[in-house]
Design brief:
mainly beta; single chain; 60% strand; 166 residues
């Protein structure tokens, strides 16, 4: 949905709103091998049996949300944007499920400002990643006896915020 609320009275008529959401439902079947005993306990005969393991599609988040709130008045324009992306599966451990890797939720906040000066001359400022989002990657692990299931961090990527003025 995208709209400019020009019909509102006074300064409210400059409000701009843009909302969108993407939902993805995906399933992939990954190759896997199960170790099976075709013999007895005393004389085991181990063999591998091919199977498939179902899981989400790699590198595809379940949902992405975007929201932009803006205001335009005379030569001034502003945009405040929010982007949220749900956790993404990076790889699947099809044999044991112990090393499924994930890219954690992403939430980014940005601001863009523009002031028209004379003719085609304008001043523009853009601030990205205001909230200082950190990209988190991790392995998941299931519960083992008394150890609860959880996340084992593998790395964090920090970019900080950035300001451009032109």
């Amino acid at each position: 949905m995208q709209t400019h609320l020009w019909y509102l009275p006074g300064l409210l008529g400059g409000i701009v709103l843009d909302l969108n959401a993407s939902y993805m439902s995906s399933r992939q079947y990954y190759p896997s091998f199960a170790v099976v005993n075709l013999g007895t306990r005393i004389r085991p005969k181990m063999t591998l049996i091919y199977q498939t393991v179902a899981g989400p599609l790699q590198d595809q988040p379940r949902a992405t949300y975007n929201a932009i709130l803006g205001w335009d008045h005379l030569g001034f324009s502003s945009r405040f944007s929010l982007r949220f992306q749900q956790q993404t599966v990076r790889s699947i451990d099809t044999q044991y499920g112990l090393q499924n890797t994930f890219y954690d939720d992403v939430m980014l906040l940005d601001i863009s400002l523009k002031q028209q000066l004379l003719g085609s001359l304008a001043v523009f400022a853009n601030v990205t990643n205001i909230n200082g989002h950190i990209d988190n990657y991790y392995f998941s692990h299931p519960a083992f006896g008394t150890i609860a299931a959880g996340q084992l961090p593998t790395n964090k990527e920090t970019y900080g915020w950035m300001l451009n003025v032109a």
